[in-house]
Amino acid sequence: GSKSISNSIEIYQENLLLNLHGHTHDASYNDVIGSVKIVNPGPMFKGRYGLYKFRKHEEMWVVDSIEFLTV
To answer: How far apart are CA 58 and CA 20, in angstroms?
Structure first.
């Protein structure tokens, strides 16, 4: 991935919940940088998408689940 995006995520991770990406690349992936989940479901033109569920935990929002799906 992009070093500049990775560096920004590392610097600002306390203020981030999730970083979503969508590219035309065929690959899809999940990753983590520090406490930030990185998600790329892959290309929509191939029918791929992600379903993200959030919930409030005490005073903060957290990612409850991530699913990669295909139409």
So the answer is: 24
